[in-house]
From TrEMBL:
Family to which the UniProt record says this protein belongs: Belongs to the bacterial PQQ dehydrogenase family.
Cell membrane is among the record's keywords: no
GO cellular component, one term: membrane
Keyword Lyase: no
Region (Disordered): 29-100
UniProt domain Pyrrolo-quinoline quinone repeat: residue ranges: 96-703
Gene Ontology MF terms: quinone binding; quinoprotein glucose dehydrogenase activity
N-terminal signal peptide: 1-24
Pfam families named among the record's database cross-references: PQQ
Protein name stated in the entry: Pyrroloquinoline quinone-dependent dehydrogenase
Keywords: Oxidoreductase, Signal
Length: 731
């Protein structure tokens, strides 16, 4: 879930094996603790003293079970009813039935009313206000990140604070609204609801309440189901439409864990993941992945990394294993294979790995394919070994069909990463469809008790969404003095290229950074042309480990400490990493006086890759102008496409257009898919840090974008969903 720094500039001005799962890639060439299938060390698996995990009997703080819900019962997977075909499998023409349009999550629409020839005529059709924004006295933590879905007569969305809404897709008139009463103190890093899930019951007859339902996970860890027609809670789901997702999680406080991504339904199982606030402590709440019956809300299974053979709910005062890798990105389901593809992050304490178990090291920063009837991983593909750079996977996997060497179709999965490496895998086995090489990486590292992996995986047949390693001559600034300042910072830091290991004696440069490559906006894919669209960031960070004594001086406390203060360590950068020997200090690699990056632009790009003809770059351009950005955070008003930080993705249509906002210039664009030329743009009332979508109503095509802004990208925060259409649609 991660941090997004507004650092835009102006050119010229300032210009193996694991409990039934296959390890689906070549392993590191040398053996180091916990990277391969070697036995764990005593220190890794049996920490002691002040770094030991808390008691399994520690109680939850008041307010963690937000609605005071009773525990939910379990159901045996064999008792799950068969699922009827879902709208997301084959959406009706003109619908957008899932977060990424359909079950493939390709973000492709067959609509073609809007074309390169007429896109310049797009106008605002309507604006809907969700009502969710900071109130007086509240710190701005808003970043809605929402993509609506459209099924039949409804445009369904959620506010940044999880209120559920159904709109008339042609007029924007509110049909119903279900307030779910999420409190401000439950906001973790960000108030965000990326989307909702549409589910059709096989047990409730058509025409009855909750035959069709809207499902969401909330910031305060509830799983909610309401009737799609009326917005009323589904009485036979959980406890009057709600399930407590903090059950079995143990000690926590409000805001430590949250669900922001839409939970997919695969073969009748709602699969739920959640974020765990970064940088807090090694023994943070668990990153467990869980499955629930979509009909009743009853618990089906859990995948608890350090208890891989136990898929049940904890009983009594016990809880899921703490500090395990969490997954906060949108997951993708495959009903035919019965799998859910889970993008994972790090174990808790991102920048120090010596206390991680061997099981954790096998599945962190990876794609894990979990069997939705058992909760057991079927395969694992790891994108970064023994990650201490916060290279958690923020993107959603995209499913495509690719021709194989024998002429048969390979069901493939595309997995982008913050490293700028894009892995293409066989989604049945996790084995690479396009070659992956293990290449030597800097090792053993700078921290004596925490050696790095000797090799890292590289996707050698896909274009890299990143720039070459930095050199001192790349340092940049508004004036020669600024450039000199940055050259001095470069020389003072430890830097040996990608995977520069963490250091304690001086800063190290992280490039690509955790805000590099592809993040939660993911990719879009045109199955007709075979063109893959990726927008990505080009950012560097300046990091340093500090001792516990230094952490105390800096006031770095975890969120569950009574002395914790917002901004005193957390997802925004510096982190206490309590329960470890070190804390982390993180900042952009910038001139802190001008707020300008020390690396030259562009800082954001958009790339088209031809997946049918050699996986080559078709075109590539900077994304984002300087109009709302500049030194000291001042907007310049200049229209130059210099490439700004961006978050949020794209949609591609049969009309030959790409729609994307994402950049910090607060604009939405229509781009020619074949050439990359911007054909139309409009200024939004707030930042467009969300994935757009497109749909049809009354015979006309609409394009929707949540202009909710982003608190940490410093784009204007609003509550406005903006919907565009051609003039004829407004009559």
């Amino acid at each position: 879930m991660k941090r997004f720094y507004l650092l835009a500039t102006v050119a010229g001005l300032s210009v193996a094996s694991m409990t039934g799962a296959a390890y689906a890639q070549v392993q590191p060439s040398d053996t180091v603790p916990d990277v391969s299938n070697s036995e764990p060390t005593d220190k890794t698996d049996a920490p002691s003293g002040k770094f030991a995990a808390p008691s399994p009997y520690a109680p939850q703080a008041p307010g963690v079970n937000a609605a005071n819900l009773p525990d939910i019962d379990s159901i045996d997977p064999s008792q799950l009813p068969a699922m009827v075909p879902q709208q997301s499998a084959h959406p009706a023409s003109g619908d957008w039935a899932a977060y990424g349009h359909d079950d493939t999550q390709q973000r492709y629409s067959s609509l073609s009313e809007i074309t390169p020839e007429n896109v310049g005529q797009l106008k605002v059709a309507f604006v809907y206000h969700t009502g969710s924004y900071p109130r007086p006295g509240q710190v701005n933590k808003w970043a809605a990140e929402t993509t609506p879905i459209k099924v039949g007569d409804g445009l369904y969305t959620c506010s940044a604070m999880n209120d559920l809404i159904k709109l008339d897709p042609a007029t924007g008139k509110q049909i119903w609204r279900r307030d779910v009463d999420v409190k401000y103190h439950s906001i973790p890093y960000t108030a965000a609801c990326k989307g909702v899930t549409y589910f059709t019951s096989s047990q409730v007859p058509e025409g009855q309440p909750c035959h069709n339902r809207i499902i969401e996970g909330t910031l305060d860890m509830r799983l909610i189901a309401v009737d799609a027609a009326t917005g009323q809670f589904c009485p036979n789901f959980g406890h009057n439409g709600q399930v407590n997702l903090m059950q079995g999680m143990g000690e926590s406080v409000p805001g430590f864990v949250a669900t922001t991504a839409p939970p997919p339904v695969i073969n009748g199982v709602v699969v739920v993941n959640h974020e765990v606030l970064d940088g807090q402590r090694r023994w943070a709440p668990s990153g467990v992945i869980r499955g629930y019956d979509a009909e009743t809300g009853k618990f089906v299974w859990a995948w608890d990394v350090n208890n891989p053979n136990d898929h049940s709910q904890p009983t009594g005062d016990h809880h899921y294993s703490r500090g395990t890798p969490n997954s906060w990105a949108a997951m993708t389901g495959d009903n035919e294979l019965g799998l859910v593809y889970v993008p994972t992050g790090n174990s808790a304490a991102d920048y120090y790995s010596a206390l991680r178990s061997s099981e954790e090291n096998k599945v962190s920063s990876a794609v894990v394919a979990i069997d939705v009837k058992t909760g057991s991983p079927r395969w694992v593909f790891q994108t970064t070994h023994k990650d201490v750079w916060d290279y958690d996977i923020g993107s959603q996997a995209t499913l495509i069909d690719m021709p194989g060497p024998d002429g048969k179709t390979i069901p493939a999965l595309i997995m982008p990463t913050k490293r700028g490496e894009t892995f293409v895998l066989d989604r049945r086995t996790g084995k690479p469809v396009l070659p992956v090489e293990e290449r030597k990486a800097p090792s053993p590292g700078m921290i004596p008790d925490d050696p790095r992996a000797p090799t890292q995986p590289w996707s050698v047949a896909m274009p890299q969404l990143k720039m070459p390693d930095l050199k001192e001559t790349d340092m940049w600034g508004m004036t020669p003095i600024d450039q000199l300042f940055c050259r001095v910072k470069f020389r003072r830091a430890h830097y040996v290229g990608e995977f520069t290991p963490p250091s304690l004696d001086k800063p190290w440069i992280e490039y690509p950074s955790y805000n590099g490559g592809s993040d939660w906006g993911s990719m879009s894919y045109d199955p007709q042309s075979g063109i893959l669209i990726a927008n990505w960031n080009n950012m560097a960070m300046y990091d340093q480990l500090v001792t516990r004594k230094q952490a105390d001086k800096l006031g770095l406390m975890p969120i569950d400490d009574p002395n914790f203060k917002p901004g005193g360590g957390g997802a925004e950068g510096n982190g206490a990493m309590a329960d470890t020997p070190y804390a982390i200090v993180v900042s952009p690699f910038w001139n802190q006086y001008t707020k300008m990056l020390c690396t030259k632009p562009p800082y954001g790009m958009i790339t088209a890759i031809d997946m049918k003809h050699g996986h080559k770059v078709l075109w590539q351009h900077p994304l984002g102008t300087a109009r709302a950005n500049g030194p000291w955070g001042l907007p310049t008003g200049l229209p130059w496409e210099i490439g700004t930080p961006n978050n949020g993705g794209s949609v591609v249509t049969a009309g030959g257009l790409i729609f994307i906002a994402a950049a910090t210039d607060n604009m939405i664009r229509a781009i020619d898919e074949k050439t990359g030329k911007v054909l139309w743009s409009a200024v939004l009332p707030g930042g467009g840090q969300a994935n757009p979508m497109t749909y049809e109503a009354n015979g006309h095509q609409y394009v929707a974008i949540m202009a909710g802004g982003h608190h940490f990208m410093a784009t204007p925060v609003t509550d406005q969903l903006v919907v565009f259409a051609l003039p004829d649609a407004k009559k």
